[in-house]
Amino acid sequence: MQQKWYQKSWGIILLLLSILILFTSCSQQNNTEIKKNETQEVNKKKATTVESKKSTTNDVAKKTTSESVVSPSVPATTSPAITSVNGDFDYSKYTQIVVDGGDMSGYRKPNVRVDVGFGDREYWAFTNEYGQLIRVEAKNITLQNPHTEHVSSSGRYYSDEAKVPGTESQELDEGHVIADSLGGVSNAYNITPQDSILNRHGDQAYMEKVIRDAGGCTDFVAVIQYPNTQTQIPNHYKFTYKIQDRPITDEFDNVNPDEVNKSLGETTGTSSTKTKTDNVPANETVSSNEDVSKVDTNHNGSVTIAEAKVAGFKMPITSDSWLYKYMDDRDGDGLIGE
Predict the structure, then answer these.
(1) Is 266 helix (H, G, I), strand (E, B) or coil?
(2) Helix H or strand E encompassing 247
(3) Which of helix, strand or coil describes residue 8?
């Protein structure tokens, strides 16, 4: 009886051991499978990450390459060239610099442009490769206003003008291309050595008076020429501008006009080489033009030099011209606008 109980006990023990071994084996197998699955999942994620990074790197490389290539049809710089008053002069060839309006130095830098308008005015001056002043222009000439601007009793913005080489001569003035009365400054970029008679009493002075009498002008361009590349003394000036939208041209050499007139026999008070038709516009006859109302635009009974020029008359107006009696010959020499 006791032996049977032991046999049953060993049987139960063996059964329990078998069950335990079975469970342990299954558990290990499951753990192995889980670890295998986890490993595969991790490897899969790593592969996806690597592929993603690779793809991103390729995209960046492609984008960088694409951005670094410029289409041959697109220019490197797209900023347009700035042109001048008449559209015939390229600003972009000249370096813009700032020079004080009262700078007395006579030195000019080559290939530059400088604003020579007093205050808020924009008057542009240009130099060539030799530092010669070759051009001054303004879209609008605004007259000096002594009531709002600080000027001296003589009508000057500054006490003196730039000492451009050549102005040391007693026969040459420090001549403004655009006068103080027209809003110009006094540095070397608005000054040329100019014959003193021409500057004070000749074509230069009368041109300035025409613009003043008209209250200003538009599309002003001064072209200045020189006999060679070494001098700063011009030999010729050409001014073009508009008054009441009508173009006017004043062109003259840098010489004493009295000497020129004397050599031509046009001495003071004489008009031996002038005729009535000399002062009549080419497209009008004397008879059809002898109507002062066509010239006297403000209808005040007198004609200014500005009004005469706008009407197409050339200066000077001589005493034998029908227009002479309507004008003011202040020095009584028989010439107006000489």
Answers:
(1) coil
(2) strand 246-253
(3) helix
Strand segments (E) across 19-122? 95-97, 112-115
DSSP 131: S
Rounded Cα distance, 46 and 41, in Å: 9
Report d(CA 231, CA 86) in Å as an integer: 28
Token output for 10: 């060993």
The token pair at 101 is 């309006």
d(CA 61, CA 84): 46
Residue pair 274/318 in contact by the 8 Å Cβ criterion: yes
pLDDT at 320: 81
CA distance 33 to 202: 113
10 Å Cβ neighbour count for 218? 15
Domain-wise residue ranges, the chain: 91-256, 276-336
Question: What amino acid is encoded at 326 in this protein?
Answer: Y
User: For strand 172-176 and strand 133-141, is the pairing parallel, antiparallel, or unpaired?
Assistant: unpaired
Domain 91-256 class in CATH: alpha beta
Residue 241 makes CB contacts below 8 A (sequence gap 6+) with 141, 211, 217, 218, 219, 220, 221, 247, 248
Instruction: Quote the CA–CA distance of 231 and 255 in Å, as a whole number.
Output: 16
- Tens of pLDDT, residue by residue over 56-82, are 444 444 433 333 333 333 333 333 456
Contact yes or no for 303/323 (Cβ under 8 A): yes
Residue found by looking up tokens 């008009």 in the block: 271
**The two three-digit tokens of residue 153, written as one number:** 């009793």
Find how far residue 294's CA is from the centre of its chain.
38
Q: Which helix (H) or strand (E) holds 209?
A: helix 203-213
Burial class (CB in 10 A: 0-12, 13-18, 19+), 272: exposed
The average confidence (pLDDT) of the chain is 77
Tokens 């840098």 belong to 254
**Is-contact 117 158, C-beta < 8 A?**
no
